[in-house]
Amino acid sequence: MYKCYLLGKNIKNSRSGEIYRELSEKDKIDFLYENADMNLEEIPEFVRFIKETGARGFNVTAPYKSEIIKYLDEMSEAVKVLGAANTVINENGKLVGYNTDVYGAKAAYREFLRYGKTLILGRGGAARALVYAFKDLDLTLYVRDSSENDILLKIKPDLNFIYDLENCDFTNIINATSVGFNEDKAIFTKKFNSQKTAVDIIYTPECTLFLSEMKKQGVEIKNGYDMLYYQAVEAYKLYKGEEND
C-alpha cells in the first residue's frame, strides 16, 4: 500500500485526493491519500511521523512549499533553482524533494497562452514554477516590492518586474496569488488593451471574480484545475518509483 499526504493550511477543499483515487483505481493499486492540514509549528512532528511510519511521502501546497526545503535530505535541480518543493518522497527515511508544478504548468497552459507579453501576478512557489516553465516567453512579474527579485532573476535573468498596473499592456495574464479564494476579491477587473487570455491557478471556486470579469470582456479564461491534475500525475509517478525532475 502507498500511504501519502497533502501538507498545507486550510486545504479542506483540495481536489488532490480525488485525482490520486482516480489514478490508483485505474492501476488497481492500494493508495491512501489524506490531508495534513496544520500550522507551521506542527511540521517538524509531521516530518518525524512520515519517517517513523514509513509513509511513501507527501505533496506540499501553500503556504509551505519553501518552508519544507529545510527538512529535505536531497532535492531535484528544479527545487534547488526554485527554492520550492511540492512533492516529497520518503526513500527509506531519506526525504527527497521534487517540483512537479513546472510540468503541471507546461501541460496545462503551454498551448493556451498566446504569443506576446505575459504578466504573472505574485512571486510565491507557484509563480516561481510558472517562470521556470515559461522561461522562453516575454515575462513580467507584478510584485509589491523588490525583496525577492534576486531569487527570481536566478530562474530567468531577463525577467521584468513592475510595481503597479497603471499604463501597462499584456497579452496573457496569470494570477498566481491566493486572492481569488475570496470570491468577492480580485487584483484587478479591467482587461488590458491587447489582452487575449487570463489564467487563475485557483480552481475553487471554479471561476474566480478575476476570471469572471475577464470573460465578460471577451478574454479567454482558464482556471487552475489542469495544472493541479498534471502536476499530480507526475507526483503519482514519483510515488510509484518512476524518475522525474
Automatic annotation (TrEMBL):
Q: Name one GO biological process term.
A: shikimate metabolic process
InterPro entries recorded: Aminoacid_DH-like_N_sf, NAD(P)-bd_dom_sf, Shikimate_DH-bd_N, Shikimate_DH_fam
Highest rank taxon of the organism: Bacteria
Does the record's keyword annotation contain Thylakoid? no
Q: Give the GO cellular component terms, alphabetically.
A: cytosol
Say yes or no: keyword Acyltransferase present: no
Q: Where is the Shikimate dehydrogenase substrate binding N-terminal domain?
A: 6-88
GO molecular function ontology, one term from the record: shikimate 3-dehydrogenase (NADP+) activity
Q: Note the Pfam families from the entry.
A: Shikimate_dh_N (PF08501)
Annotated metabolic or biological route of this protein: Metabolic intermediate biosynthesis; chorismate biosynthesis; chorismate from D-erythrose 4-phosphate and phosphoenolpyruvate: step 4/7
Alphabetic keyword roster: Amino-acid biosynthesis, Aromatic amino acid biosynthesis
Q: Which CDD domains match?
A: NAD_bind_Shikimate_DH
Protein's name in the database: Shikimate dehydrogenase
State the organism of origin: Ezakiella coagulans
